[in-house]
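step=predict obj=Amidohydrolase family protein n=302
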Amino acid sequence: MSDTQIFVKDADWLDWHPNPSVPAFQVPAGAVDAHCHVFGPGNEFPFAPERKYTPCDASREQLFALRDFLGFERNVVVQATCHGADNSALLDVLAHSDDRARGVVTVTPDVTEYELARMHELGVRGVRFNYVKRLVDPKPDEYYRTIVDKIRPLGWHVVIYFEPADLREKWDFFVSLNIPIAIDHMGRPDVSKPVDNAEFELLLRFMRENPDVWCKVSCPDRLSHGPIRGGAPLYADVVPFAKTIVEEFSDRVLWGTDWPHPNMKKEMPDDGILVDYVPSIATTAILQQKLLVNNPTTLYWS
């Protein structure tokens, strides 16, 4: 924390939905929102000087209120790029969660064993590597490899955010890490293409050949090519992609709201509608239980 600063959100920033609908789908007991964020509040947890966007505030109290409103029991909070490698806001969530939250942080290679141990005690279980160039400036492979070597003794995993071209480019490096990997948002497939397109087949091959790779079937609102409101409530163009992953890799899939939905440009999703999307990609009670309860519990609370 530092002296109070005043941050002005980007002029085109869309704030998170203030009044989401009540989901018709009741999530199973013990359900986990396995991908969400907090932003600041900026006057308490300042945004990083090197950030590529300035968001609105989205506090832990507001995150917990949404969790309860949607019927979830727990959260996995992922470090937002606007906070860089200062994980103070995320760690504050964990410290106030009564063991109902876990964290995925961003760290630099000079992170100390003491810092990692403190994070682990609070509930951190992974680090995030972001390759999406419009959000961050990716670092050289050895930068990330040094971090992996430091977190390996803790039993953590790596969350990787990339786009289709990045997987082909970084395949050998990702495999060489020899550590569990969770892919954010299905690797952002182009859902305007047929589901059997070469880029998506490469993602499926990556999961088939590497049994320690997990996948978040989240963010249909980011991936849909539908017009405003046309993508909701079903996000029909995204469903075949997510459904394919859920059905083939039912023990290695996760789901999250992505609240408070950073960098949305055309429409701010209704979190209740996002919950109602789940049964279209996990079509049985068994698949829903694995997606929302068993798998995130295994990865984050075991």
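step=describe
The CA atoms of residues 254 and 296 lie 6 Å apart.
step=end
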